[in-house]
Structure formats: structure tokens, C-alpha cells
Design goal:
The protein is of the alpha+beta class and 434 residues long. The protein contains 21 helices and six strands.
Length: 434
């Protein structure tokens, strides 16, 4: 874990511009004893090493930053810049192909943020390209990627299964830098209980030039909502720690699954849009889509990390995050051991934190997804109202219909996964037969 001064240094640099308060905190942090190897390792893991390179490379800080640390930051910056520029060239090629095929797309996350929010795209490292398409255009978009040399990654679940139960289809292309593209037709899957208004999102999308090509990007309100919901999805313990005094320490804990660059994206998106953000519309859409709790959680933590970015009245409008009794108990049980440094927990929580939490996929799939599936089968009443657009007395009828339908889908998923695993093992078993 980072010390208070070390985390203060990283947080102060995790933005494009250092205002007077951030500059003052950076100066205080540099005056304290610092473990530079640890600072740089954690900054790289959180995607903010290029921002540290920019701010700590200033001539006036030459005596405060060791030469070895400067060199390491330069190495990380150049390596990340090479990947970023390669991805941006690939994005330009794909956008030209989509445009030639008459396929409208909305560029999401890194490919858009690096060019529009950051004055230097190399300050925002990212590892894949995310584009939103209309679900009816999925086959045509997939064929465009096939023609460009992209293929499905090894071990991918059947395409039909992914299209029915997931919300994006990944494809990869090998080369000097491996390119990964995710074709999104939604922003979340059915198991979250969220019902985003995709038609409204497309109607509000704005024109922009990315990698030399005309395309679409999210409106300011939709961008903030998407970034906040994405952060909440990955930071699966965040809802259990809103309001805690140790928010900074929590975000830097590896078990939290947070990345600081996602908060930086939110900070830059909000500060760049300023008074143009229609917060009332953002809140209203969030409540109708069932994402207000996720958005409020991310914005509350953003204020705790970066200072007053979002007005308190907006957080009041969004309301407190909703957690089921099961999730609240599990999350608080896990989060309660995150305030220690070098003093591991004992018993079941210690085992979970030391053996299970370090494996990202295990946690995201086995724990969080299972809890999401349980809430999908037996959702709160407001989720049923939003999903089926019904009110009393029909709500009870549709609730029973939803539960029965969920069990049917669960059986289909189990059969499909079982058959896929069986087929995956058959060639291996045949090869091992003498």
C-alpha cells in the first residue's frame, strides 16, 4: 500500500492541469520520504504513469525526483505512447471501413477519450478499441472486421451465446501490437437490472473527428453516465464504502478492482463540459434506466479523491446506492479488511483476500456475476416495472412471468455452457487416446 504522502502525490498528478491546490499538495508530498519504485509501479497499474511523467518531468522538480525514477517514467511513457498511437491508427482504418460500409458507430472509452478529453492522446493509455453499433448491424460490422484481418480470440464462447446473453463481441488482430476490438450493441447485459435507453443515446450522439475520420461520440451527459456506470461495474466494492473516510486508501487497494485513470476520465469529462452539462436530465435518465445508484457512487468517490467536482445537490438527486441485503453483507465483509497495511486478515476473509481476490476473473465471474444472476432471477419490484413497463396490479403477474422466464434462461445457459465445455474437451480427450 501507498503511504499518505505517496497516494497524495499520485492523486495530485492524476489530472492534466495542476491547479493551485493540487500543486500545493504535490509540493507537500515531494517533501516527505517516498518509495519511488512503489509509486511508479502503482501509477502504472492505475494507468496514470504518463500523467506522472508529464508533471514530475518539470525542470523545477529536477532535484525532488530521483534520476532513476525519471528514467523509469520515461520508459513507461514511451512504451505506452507506442501502443496508443498504434491503436489510434487502427481506429482510423476501422472508422473508414465502417463509413464505407454505411455503418454508423459510436466510439466509446479510450479511443474517444484520448483524443477529445486529453490534449495529448499519449497521456491516456488504453489497450483496446470499443465501438457501439446497433444490434441489427452486428453481422455487417463483424464482416467488416473479418475483412480487416480480425478474428475471434481463442477460447471464445459461441457467438450465438454471446449475442443472446452478453453485450459485446471481442475480436483480435495479431501484429506488432495485438489489436483488440469490442463490438458493443448495448452498454450492459440483462443480469444487471439496468435498462439503458439506447435509442435515446443514439439520438443524442454528437459528431466528432477521431483519427482523421468523422464519427459519433456520446453526448456529455451520456458520457459521464457511461463512465460512472463502467467504473461502478468494475469497482464492485465501491457501493459498500461510499461515505467512508478511507476512500483514497480503498481505491488504491488492489482488491478494490478500481483504476485511478477511470476517475481521471470522469474528472476530465466533467471539467471539460462545465456548465454545458444538464445534470437534471442526467439524473432523470439514470433513474429511468436504474443506473442512478451506480452513477451516484462513482461521483461521490470522485469528490472524495479530487475535491469538490460534482455539486452535493446532484448527489442528493441521484440518491444513495441500492444494495441487496446479500450484496451489502458480502461487500462490507470483504471491504472491512482493506484498512490494514501488512497485517493480513485471518480466517475465511483472509483466505478470500489472499487466494481469491488476486485472481481478477475469478472474482468478477464467480462472485459478482453469481450475485448479479441471483438478483436477476429475483429482482426488486422497480426493476420489473422498468423492464416490462407495467404498474400495479399487472406488476405481480409480470414478476411471476419474469421469475419463470429467468429460470428457463438459466437452464438454457447451463446447457449451452455444458455443451461448449464438452466440445472443448473432446479434441483434447481424442488426442490423449492411444
Amino acid at each position: 500500500m501507498l503511504s499518505e504522502a505517496e497516494s497524495q502525490l499520485v492523486l495530485s498528478c492524476a489530472r492534466q492541469r495542476l491547479g493551485p491546490p493540487a500543486a500545493a499538495r504535490l509540493g507537500q508530498a515531494l517533501a516527505a520520504p517516498l518509495r519511488w519504485d512503489r509509486i511508479i509501479r502503482i501509477a502504472a497499474r492505475h494507468g496514470v504513469a504518463p500523467l506522472l511523467h508529464r508533471h514530475l518531468g518539470a525542470p523545477e522538480l529536477a532535484e525532488a525526483v530521483p534520476t532513476r525514477a525519471r528514467r523509469r517514467l520515461v520508459e513507461l511513457y514511451l512504451r505506452g505512447a507506442h501502443q496508443t498511437l498504434h491503436l489510434l491508427r487502427a481506429l482510423g482504418d476501422l472508422l473508414a471501413r465502417f463509413r464505407a460500409g454505411g455503418l454508423p458507430v459510436v466510439v466509446l472509452k479510450g479511443g474517444s477519450l484520448a483524443q477529445l478529453l486529453y490534449h495529448d492522446a499519449t497521456l491516456r493509455p488504453f489497450g483496446d478499441l470499443d465501438v457501439l453499433i446497433r444490434k441489427d448491424d452486428l453481422e455487417r460490422a463483424r464482416d467488416v472486421l473479418f475483412a480487416a484481418g480480425y478474428r475471434f480470440p481463442p477460447g471464445l464462447l459461441p457467438e450465438g451465446f454471446i449475442r443472446q446473453y452478453h453485450f459485446n463481441l471481442p475480436m483480435v488482430k495479431q501484429g506488432a501490437v495485438q489489436l483488440c476490438v469490442e463490438l458493443h450493441w448495448s452498454l450492459t447485459d440483462r443480469f444487471t437490472g439496468q435498462t439503458p435507453d439506447l435509442d435515446g443515446l443514439w439520438a443524442r450522439a454528437c459528431s466528432a473527428t477521431l483519427s482523421g475520420q468523422e464519427t459519433l461520440i456520446l453526448s456529455p451527459e451520456d458520457l459521464i453516465s457511461h463512465l460512472a456506470v463502467h467504473l461502478d461495474m468494475h469497482g464492485y466494492l465501491n457501493r459498500a464504502v461510499v461515505g467512508r473516510e478511507d476512500a483514497v486508501r480503498f481505491v488504491f487497494d488492489p482488491s478494490s478492482e478500481n483504476r485511478l485513470i477511470w476517475f481521471t476520465d470522469l474528472y476530465e469529462a466533467i471539467t471539460a463540459s462545465g456548465d454545458r452539462i444538464d445534470w437534471a436530465a442526467l439524473v432523470d435518465r439514470g433513474k429511468r434506466a436504474g443506473t442512478s445508484g451506480a452513477i451516484g457512487t462513482s461521483l461521490a468517490l470522485l469528490n472524495a479523491l479530487y475535491g469538490p467536482v460534482v455539486e452535493p445537490r446532484v448527489l442528493e438527486w441521484l440518491g444513495p446506492p441500492r444494495l441487496s441485503l446479500v450484496k451489502r453483507g458480502v461487500f462490507r465483509w470483504l471491504a472491512s479488511g482493506m484498512d490494514r497495511d501488512g497485517d493480513p486478515d485471518s480466517g475465511s476473509r483472509g483466505f478470500f483476500r489472499s487466494r481469491v481476490l488476486p485472481t481478477r476473473q475469478a472474482v468478477q465471474f464467480r462472485l459478482i456475476r453469481l450475485l448479479d444472476v441471483w438478483e436477476y432471477v429475483l429482482p426488486p419490484a422497480d426493476v420489473v416495472r422498468r423492464r416490462y413497463h407495467v404498474h400495479r396490479p399487472w406488476q405481480v403477474v409480470f414478476y411471476l412471468f419474469h421469475v419463470a422466464n429467468a429460470f428457463v434462461h438459466g437452464g438454457r445457459i447451463a446447457l449451452a455452457l455444458g455443451w461448449w465445455l464438452l466440445k472443448a474437451r473432446m479434441p483434447r480427450a481424442t488426442a490423449e487416446t492411444p
